[in-house]
Write a structure and sequence with these properties.
Layout lengths: L6 E6 L3 H16 L3 E2 L8 E6 L4 H20 L4 E6 H13 L5 E3 L7 H10 L23 E5 L1 E2 L10 H5 L3 E2 L2 H13 L4 E5 L16 H8 L6 E4 L9 H9 L3 E10 L3 H7 L7 H11 L4 E8 L6 H14 L3 E6 L7 H4 L6 H22 L7 E11 L2 E6 L10 E4 L8 E10 L2 E6 L5
Parallel strand pairs: 1-2, 1-3, 3-4, 4-5, 6-9, 9-10, 10-11, 11-12, 12-13, 16-18
Antiparallel strand pairs: 7-8, 14-15, 14-17, 15-16, 17-18
Helix pairs in contact: 1-4, 7-8, 11-13
C-alpha cells in the first residue's frame, strides 16, 4: 500500500494550543501524502495528541490511547503514535504501561511527527517530508471564520501548583515572521477572527532579549485583513500600560482580555507563588482606565492548600465587586512534583468542589445582573449557526468561542461566518439575545 493511500487521524485532547499543534500535524501529514481522516476506527495511522496538565487530563489521554489501541490490534490501523504532554511528563513510565504504542514523541516534538511516521511506515527517512510548523499549511478544525494563532509555548512563572514548566520547559516564542506568516495564511483563507494563544501570551518574545514582543506583534498584525484579533491567556504581570495603549489604538485587536488571576486573597496568592503580581483589582482598574468598556474574562482556582474560609469569602467579594464579564473556575489538583502538592494543610476534596460550585453560581448571577447594561447596545457579531428561519446563534465581540456565552440573533441572518450588526435586547447570565440590524446601521 502506498503512502498516498493511507489515512491519518489526529486526535486532539486538552487546550487550544494542542488544537493548533494537531492542525499543523495534519497539514504536515497531508503534505507527506497521507489522507486526513476524522474517524480513528477507519484510519491507517492514528496520532493521539495528549494532555497531562492535571491527573484527570492524563487519565483521559490514557483512556483515548487504549481505545485507539483496539484499532491497532484488530482494525485497519498500522501505526499508533502518541505525542505531547503525557510522554513528556511520564516518560519511560508511560512507555512501559502502554506497550501498544508504536511511536512516542514529546511535548516539543510536534514538528517531527510526519517525518517519524513516514520513517516508521517505510523504514527510511525522506527529506521531502515537511515539518509541522506555524508557517506550514494547517488543516483547520475550527469553523472557517476563526482560527487560533499559537505564539509559543512553555512558561517560567513558577506557580506552586503548575506542572507546565516541567512538561513544556521555559518560554520559547515562535519567530515574529513565522507567526505573521501563519496569520497571513489564515487571513487569506477567509478567517475573520484570529485568537492568540500560548501558555502566557504576554510573555511572547521575553526569551529573546531585545527582540520583538507582544506589543510589536500586535502593531504588525493590525495591518492584516481580518475583523477581530483576540488575546487569550494574558498573565496579569504582562498587562502593562504600553500593551493597553496599543490595544486601545488598534483597529483589529479587541478590547478583550482573558486573565488567569487564580485568586484574590493576598495570602493565597503568596502560597501560589504569585504575590509579586499585586492585587488583581489594580490590574482590572488599569485595564478599564485604558480601554473603553472592555470585556474581561478571568479564571480562578479554589481549594489551594491553606485556603481558609476567609480567603474564599475574599474571592467571592472580589467577583461581586469587579463584575467580570466571564469567569472560569476550577478546583485545585495536587499534582505530583509540584510544591503545592507538598503543602499543608490540604483542603478536602469535597470542600474544594463545594467552593467551586458556589463561585460558579455567584459569577453567573453577577454576570446576569451586569449584562443587563448591554441591553440597547449596538455591537458587531459573527453568525455561527442558523437555527431556523429567523433565529441564529452567534457571538458579539465580547464573547470568545467555546468558553464564553453566546448570542441568539433574531432575524434572517446571512450564512455562518458573516459579521453583522445587532442590537442587544436581553440576557440570561452570560448569554445574550439580540436583533439583527440592517447593514446600514
Amino acid at each position: 500500500m502506498s503512502a498516498r493511500q493511507l489515512r491519518a487521524c489526529v486526535i486532539w485532547l486538552g487546550c487550544d494550543k494542542n488544537r493548533v499543534y494537531c492542525e499543523e500535524m495534519l497539514g504536515a501529514l497531508a503534505a507527506a501524502g497521507l489522507q486526513p481522516h476524522p474517524n480513528p476506527e477507519d484510519a491507517d495511522v492514528i496520532v493521539v495528541n495528549t494532555c497531562a496538565f492535571i491527573e484527570d487530563a492524563a487519565q483521559e489521554s490514557v483512556d483515548a490511547i487504549l481505545r485507539c489501541a483496539q484499532y491497532r490490534r484488530s482494525g485497519r490501523c498500522q501505526l499508533l503514535a502518541v505525542v505531547g504532554c503525557l510522554p513528556a511528563r511520564y516518560g519511560s513510565e508511560a512507555r512501559r504501561a502502554l506497550p501498544e504504542v508504536d511511536l512516542w514523541l514529546g511535548a516539543n516534538e510536534y514538528h517531527l511527527v510526519a517525518r517519524r511516521v513516514w520513517q516508521a511506515l517505510h523504514g527510511q527517512m525522506e527529506r521531502r517530508i515537511p515539518s509541522a510548523t506555524a508557517s506550514a499549511d494547517r488543516i483547520l478544525s475550527t469553523p472557517a471564520h476563526y482560527g487560533y494563532l499559537l505564539l509559543g509555548d512553555g512558561c517560567d512563572r513558577g506557580c506552586s501548583y503548575c506542572t507546565i514548566p516541567a512538561i513544556k520547559g521555559k518560554v520559547h516564542s515562535r519567530p515574529l515572521e513565522e507567526v505573521l506568516g501563519a496569520a497571513r495564511k489564515l487571513a487569506q483563507r477567509g478567517v475573520g477572527e484570529l485568537i492568540l494563544v500560548a501558555q502566557d501570551t504576554t510573555s511572547y518574545g521575553r526569551d529573546v532579549p531585545g527582540g520583538p514582543d507582544l506589543v510589536d506583534l500586535l502593531v504588525e498584525m493590525d495591518q492584516l485583513p481580518v475583523r477581530w484579533i483576540r488575546l487569550m491567556y494574558a498573565h496579569p504581570a504582562g498587562i502593562t500600560p504600553r500593551l493597553l495603549r496599543v490595544m486601545a489604538g488598534s483597529r483589529r485587536t479587541l478590547p478583550y482580555l482573558d486573565i488567569p488571576f487564580q485568586h484574590a486573597s493576598p495570602r493565597v496568592l503568596r502560597r501560589m507563588g504569585r504575590a509579586d503580581l499585586g492585587h488583581p483589582g489594580r490590574c482590572i482598574a488599569m485595564v478599564r482606565n485604558y480601554l473603553h468598556d472592555p470585556s474581561i474574562r478571568a479564571t480562578f482556582m479554589v481549594g489551594h492548600p491553606g485556603e481558609g474560609w476567609e480567603d474564599f469569602l475574599a474571592l467571592l467579594a472580589f467577583v461581586r465587586r469587579f463584575r467580570l464579564d466571564h469567569v472560569g473556575v476550577f478546583a485545585f489538583s495536587p499534582e505530583e512534583g509540584t510544591a503545592a502538592a507538598r503543602m499543608r494543610p490540604q483542603v478536602p476534596v469535597a470542600v474544594r468542589e463545594r467552593r467551586r460550585r458556589r463561585l460558579i453560581r455567584q459569577a453567573w448571577q453577577v454576570a446576569h445582573r451586569a449584562n443587563r447594561r448591554l441591553v440597547g447596545m449596538i455591537a458587531e457579531a459573527v453568525v455561527e449557526e442558523i437555527i431556523s428561519d429567523g433565529l441564529a446563534r452567534g457571538r458579539i465581540w465580547r464573547q470568545a468561542p467555546e468558553v464564553d456565552g453566546i448570542t441568539y440573533i433574531f432575524g434572517r441572518c446571512p450564512t455562518p461566518g458573516t459579521f453583522v450588526k445587532v442590537r442587544v435586547v436581553g440576557n440570561h447570565g452570560y448569554d445574550l439575545f439580540a436583533e439583527l440590524l440592517p447593514p446600514s446601521c
